[in-house]
Write a structure and sequence with these properties.
Elements: E1 2-5, H1 11-20, E2 25-28, H2 34-37, E3 42-45, H3 52-57, E4 63-66, H4 76-82, E5 85-88, H5 94-109, H6 112-120, E6 137-141, H7 145-156, E7 160-165, E8 176-179, H8 183-186, E9 192-195, H9 209-214, E10 220-223, H10 232-240, E11 246-249, E12 269-271, H11 282-298
Parallel strand pairs: 1-2, 1-3, 3-4, 4-5, 6-7, 6-9, 7-8, 9-10, 10-11, 11-12
GO molecular function, one term: NAD binding
Domain D-isomer specific 2-hydroxyacid dehydrogenase NAD-binding: 102-276
Family: Belongs to the D-isomer specific 2-hydroxyacid dehydrogenase family.
Length: 314
Amino acid sequence: MIVYFTFDPRPDLKEGLLQDFPTIEFIFHNNIDHTVLKEAEVVVTYGEDIEAQQIWLAEKLKWIMVASAGIEKMPQKEIAERGIVVSNVRGIHKVPMAESVLAHILSYKRELAWIYEQEQKAEWNRKSKATELHGSTALILGPGAIGSEIGRLLQAFGVHTIGCNRSGNKADYMDDMISFSALQKTLPSADIVISVLPSTPDTQYLLKSEHFEAMKGSTLFLNFGRGDLVSTDVLIHALNAGEIAHAVLDVYEEEPLPADHPFWQMNTVTVSPHVSSHSSRYLERSLEIFKPNLKKWLEGDTELINKMDIIRGY
C-alpha cells in the first residue's frame, strides 16, 4: 500500500513513520506527482494542493488525511462522489492558537505596541492607557477544541466566557452558551468578540453590519477562524464608524493580503499573516493523530479519529 505525503516532513518524523509501519511504502514530495497519485491508497496533504481533476486521476485513493482543520479549498463535491474517507487534525491547533489569541488580547489591553514604540524612540513615557483583562466578558464564536482552550485561559484571568455555536449546546470552559440565532442580542454585553469558526455554509458571512452595530464601541474583535466570516467592507465600515475599537485579524477574504490593502494602514487593525497556529510541534502533533488512524485503517476500521463530513465541512 502506498501512503503519499504531498509535503516533506522533518527527517526524524519520516523515520518514525518508517519504523512504526515497515510494510507501508511511504512517498514524500513537496508537490503532486501524478504517477504516484494514481497508485496511492492514502494521501496526506495540507488540503490546498489537490484539484478536482486529480481526484478522478487517483484511481486507488480511499482516504485523504488533511494536516489542517479546514477543508474549504478542497474539491469537496468530487471527493464525496468518489466516496473517499476524509479526516483532519482537529484539536492540534488549540495550544498555539489559544496562546496567540491570548497574546494579542494582553498586548492590546496592556498597550505593548505603545511600549515598544517608546522603546524604539528611547523615550521614558509613563502615560500608558493600559486596561485590565480581568472582569471583562468574552464572546467566543466556535467553542470547540480551540475555542474551549481560549475559554480556559481567559477564565484564569477572571473573564466571563460566552460560547456561541449553531446549536447552543454546552461547551467546555464556557460560563454561558448561546446559538447563532441569539448572537445579535448578546453582542452588546461582550467586551471581546473572538471567532475561531471554520468556513461552512452556516458560518460564511455570518457577521453582518447589524452585528457590529450591536457591539460596544470599545469592543476588541478578533478573527482567527476563516476570512469569509465577515466581508472586508463591513469590517472597515465598522472600524471607521467607531462601532468597534480595534480588530486583530489572522485570516482574510483574500490571502496573502495585498500590499495596497487598507488594513495595512489602519491603526485600528492588527494584521497577523495567518500564523496563529504555527508551532514547531505542528507536524509532530499531526502525526500523533495520523499514526493511530493508519493502524485502524490497516485493520479495516474506517471509523477514524476526526473523520469528517466533506460536504458539511466538519
